[in-house]
Amino acid sequence: MSLVVDVQVADRDVEIAFEVAAGETVAILGPNGAGKSTTLDVVGGLLRPDSGRVVLDGKELTGADRWVAPHARRTALLAQDPLLFPHLSVLENVAFGPRSRGAGRAAARETALAWLAEVDATGLAERRPAQLSGGQAQRVAVARALAADPQLLLLDEPMAALDIAVAPALRQLLRTVLADRTAVVVTHHVLDALLLADRVVVLEGGRVVEQGPAGVVLSRPRSAFAARFAGLNLVSGVATPDGVRRPDGSVLHGTATDPAPREGSEAVAVFRPSAVAVHREPPGGSPRNVLSVRVEELEPLGDVVRVRAGDLAADVTVAAVAELGLAPGQEVSFVVKATEVDVYPR
């Protein structure tokens, strides 16, 4: 079931267009306020756009003279909160979708039991939602969504509220059930994008700034948000023979990757935080890129500390933080070898 979205919501300054092929999962990424939830609301029929259209499997759901109500769209939403009916048992919750579509009681229960088995939750059938853990409730929510036989699944950060020990199991479950289904997933977690999505759409300021195969976008980002999401540094500018000229006139030296950017065209330079050394004073010596920055945040990440400075970051050891006396507000130099910097067209 393919999906076409091309809509405008004036009061939220959102203009978004993208497509989802039949059987494909697309992850929508972006900072808070970028328009991710607005997009899901429009596709699900919870928000009517000022103009544009939403087409699912060739059928127009939203258009100039067309509006299909949410319950008639054959879509299912899986959100952070499982939203189970508290007065119904797990089995009755999952059977609700088939019953709403006209199935008899026996047939609906059979469908519900089949999907509970699919998500390894058969033993929970007679419990009420209040008797479930967070992970169990979200498994039941997956079963309920799929039991309704939706043409399109909408997932709004379904693992955001789960304990870190529970999320991996649900992520693996979703990877299995989404394998041949058409779905749109909003997420803030890089693993969700890499493991669940075939393609990603990156939103900033209510606009699509980047889209493409998940592995390509997250390994070769062209937008600041996608780079930070993927844990990479990105510097934008104009291509030079040996790097990227920044707006301040300085050149970040690097190695052009295929296809190489045309000199004078927009380009980006990308490098890993782990490739960055931090110095109190600008060093001399071998050809290296030296970026003067102000430390904004020190973020512990296991056995390293991520030093954030604007859109750039460096990963250093705890010992290095102590030795350099790093603290927010401090002026330092980020240093990275040209061989560690990839340059490609924006």
What keywords describe this structure?
single chain; 346 residues; alpha+beta; Rossmann fold; OB fold (Dihydrolipoamide Acetyltransferase, E2P); 2 domains; six-stranded mixed β-sheet; 9 helices; 23 strands; globular; ATP binding; transport; ABC_transporter-like_ATP-bd
List the helices and strands and how they pair.
Blueprint: E1 3-9, E2 14-20, E3 25-29, H1 36-44, E4 51-56, E5 59-63, E6 66-67, E7 75-78, H2 90-100, H3 105-118, H4 134-147, E8 152-156, H5 167-177, E9 183-186, H6 190-196, E10 199-204, E11 207-213, H7 214-219, H8 224-229, E12 233-240, E13 243-245, E14 251-253, E15 255-256, E16 266-271, E17 277-279, E18 288-294, E19 297-301, E20 304-309, E21 312-317, H9 318-324, E22 331-337, E23 342-345
Parallel strand pairs: 3-9, 3-10, 7-8, 8-9, 15-23
Antiparallel strand pairs: 1-2, 1-4, 4-5, 5-6, 10-11, 12-13, 12-16, 13-14, 16-23, 17-22, 18-22, 19-20, 20-21
Helix pairs in contact: 2-3, 2-4, 3-4, 4-5
Domain ABC transporter: 2-230
Region (Disordered): 245-264
Domain Mop: 284-345
Q: Could you characterize what this model shows?
A:
This protein is α+β, with helices and mostly antiparallel strands. The protein has helices at residues 36-44, 90-100, 105-118, 134-147, 167-177, 190-196, 214-219, 224-229, 318-324, and strands at 3-9, 14-20, 25-29, 51-56, 59-63, 66-67, 75-78, 152-156, 183-186, 199-204, 207-213, 233-240, 243-245, 251-253, 255-256, 266-271, 277-279, 288-294, 297-301, 304-309, 312-317, 331-337, 342-345. α2 (90-100) crosses α3. The longest helix is centred in the N-terminal third of the chain and has 14 residues, at 105-118. The chain folds into two domains: 3-219, Rossmann fold (3-Layer(aba) Sandwich); 231-345, OB fold (Dihydrolipoamide Acetyltransferase, E2P) (Beta Barrel), CATH 2.40.50. β5 (59-63) and β6 form a beta hairpin. GO terms for molecular function: ATP binding. InterPro entries: AAA+_ATPase, ABC_SmlMolc_Importer, ABC_transporter-like_ATP-bd, ABC_transporter-like_CS, Mo/tungstate-bd_C_term_dom, Mop_domain, P-loop_NTPase, Transp-assoc_OB_typ1. This is Molybdenum ABC transporter ATP-binding protein. Keywords: ATP-binding, Molybdenum, Nucleotide-binding, Transport. Residues 245-264 are annotated as: Disordered.
